[in-house]
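2024-03-11 09:14:02 DEBUG pipeline.ingest accepted 1 chain
2024-03-11 09:14:02 DEBUG pipeline.ingest length=245
2024-03-11 09:14:03 DEBUG pipeline.predict start
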Amino acid sequence: MSIITSTYTGPPAYLFNGHLETIIPSLFRKVSDVAYIREKIDTPDDDFLNLDWAKVGSSKLLIISHGLEGDSERHYVKGMVKLFNSSKIDVLVWNNRSCGGEINLRPILYHHGASYDLDTTISHVLKNHSYEEIYLTGISMGGAQTLKYLGEKGADLPAEIRRAAVYSTPCNLLSSANTLKLRSNSFYKNRFLGKLKLKIQAKAAQFPDLIDLELLDKVSDFDTFDTIFTAKLHGFKDAQNSTDQ
């Protein structure tokens, strides 16, 4: 395997630590000239997925899996869409269930090991389009979903899939969750949990007999949230069990 030498010279001087590198682009980076065409597809369990296409008439396709509480509108996604479109490659961004501006129908949301919706997306593309080459990429949680899909397919991976690359992917989910407990990372933990709590409130409106909103008051970290909500909704015993999948 060849090694590609990086030409990266480092961040701008004003982004002098990891927090600034993360927060400033999230708040202020704007990516223009990206226009999607949305397609809604059914899932095998009678739910739906929203797929956002950015086509330039190519025989090649990049499929992007976004990060936790992200969607096709996130700056890091649109930046990649714009880059690959400029290289004459079609792009498809699939939105995890409950992401992309529309709450899904089933009780489940998504998690780092939920590769089945990526599988549904790829199967839909292979059935309805004739791309000669397909590339996969994922950011953070989307990277974990992508790697899990590749591992599960193994030798049965569709021949059209030629390359895959992932970024900022938590290889050890439990360790990553523990890192968010550090006081220095409380901003990110609170931001993610705030968004996830809103999702649970929306799910409780759909399934009031399934979700006890009074338990939200007990949630101050990801372990508790995943044990009370994620694990229950997705058939895991607790947070530890879900991170082992």
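2024-03-11 09:14:41 DEBUG pipeline.report The chain has a mean pLDDT of 91.
2024-03-11 09:14:41 DEBUG pipeline.predict end
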